[in-house]
């Protein structure tokens, strides 16, 4: 893996080079093993938290971990194009618009002992901006090359905080063209429900049951590109003890294996239908 500037990453994408890179400020990673009409993203995978902010933060390391999406990058590892955040959403949230990306409070609890300085905020927002420069370059390249693209936007959610039965998989579709992409959405929901999971975990998959797909990552791509579908895909944290901060590697492995099979099949069908 190379350490590259934002402009170097964008230049490699424009030249259709294959590469694995970490941004020079260590805020995100990107790998392109092949140019294909689909990409994967794990924007909340990151757990890094700038040291200069530690003493100002009222949330514990565990509280931050609890709201992040650990191991989502690992689940997407087999796929040819993966972009993944390295920083915690508690520093800046890549799935929120720039003016909302730095929390004042998080999940009902004040985040900072004292307000961040303009310098502290600008450092974080520059990383947010740079990430989206690369996302724009990547999707533009894929749309130009293939005519259409599908992006698998993988997140996880804390299912134990719900007081009702919730699905293992949830697709949020409220901000996509459902009339145009209805069949692709339903096909993805059906394919997710076929992923076999250990420990008698039910492979249920529903649409807009727990989350509706209101994230900025989806909205940014959808508003900038006419022929790209973003599938905001949430997996319940059945792959860890979310209260004990323990990862279940056998479940992570099963999800990765299931996505390795189902995701390229779905992407291929999508391309065959929408590339025309």
Automatic annotation (TrEMBL):
Keyword list, A-Z: Hydrolase
GO molecular function, one term: hydrolase activity
Protein name in the entry: N-formylglutamate amidohydrolase
SUPFAM superfamilies the record matches: Zn-dependent exopeptidases
Lineage: Bacteria, Pseudomonadati, Bacteroidota, Flavobacteriia, Flavobacteriales
């Amino acid at each position: 893996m190379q350490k590259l500037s934002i402009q170097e990453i964008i230049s490699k994408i424009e030249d259709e080079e294959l590469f694995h890179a970490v941004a020079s400020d260590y805020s995100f990673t990107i790998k392109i093993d092949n140019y294909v009409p689909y990409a994967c993203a794990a924007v909340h995978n990151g757990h890094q938290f700038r040291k200069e902010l530690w003493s100002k933060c009222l949330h514990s390391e565990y509280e931050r971990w609890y709201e992040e999406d650990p191991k989502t990058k690992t689940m997407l590892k087999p796929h040819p194009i993966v972009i993944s955040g390295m920083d915690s959403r508690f520093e800046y949230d890549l799935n929120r618009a720039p003016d909302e990306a730095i929390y004042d409070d998080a999940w009902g609890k004040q985040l900072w002992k004292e307000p961040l300085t303009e310098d502290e905020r600008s450092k974080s927002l520059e990383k947010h901006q740079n990430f989206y420069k690369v996302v724009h370059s990547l999707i533009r390249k894929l749309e130009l090359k293939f005519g259409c693209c599908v992006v698998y936007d993988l997140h996880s959610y804390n299912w134990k905080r719900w007081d009702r039965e919730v699905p293992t998989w949830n697709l949020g579709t409220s901000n996509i063209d459902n009339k145009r992409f209805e069949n692709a959405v339903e096909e993805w929901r059906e394919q997710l429900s076929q992923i076999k999971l250990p420990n008698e975990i039910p492979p249920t998959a529903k649409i807009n049951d727990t989350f509706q797909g209101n994230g900025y990552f989806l909205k940014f791509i959808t508003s900038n590109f006419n022929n790209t579908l973003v599938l905001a895909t949430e997996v319940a944290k059945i792959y860890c003890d979310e209260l004990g901060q323990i990862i279940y590697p056998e479940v992570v492995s099963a999800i990765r294996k299931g996505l390795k099979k189902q995701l390229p099949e779905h992407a291929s069908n999508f391309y065959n239908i929408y590339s025309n």
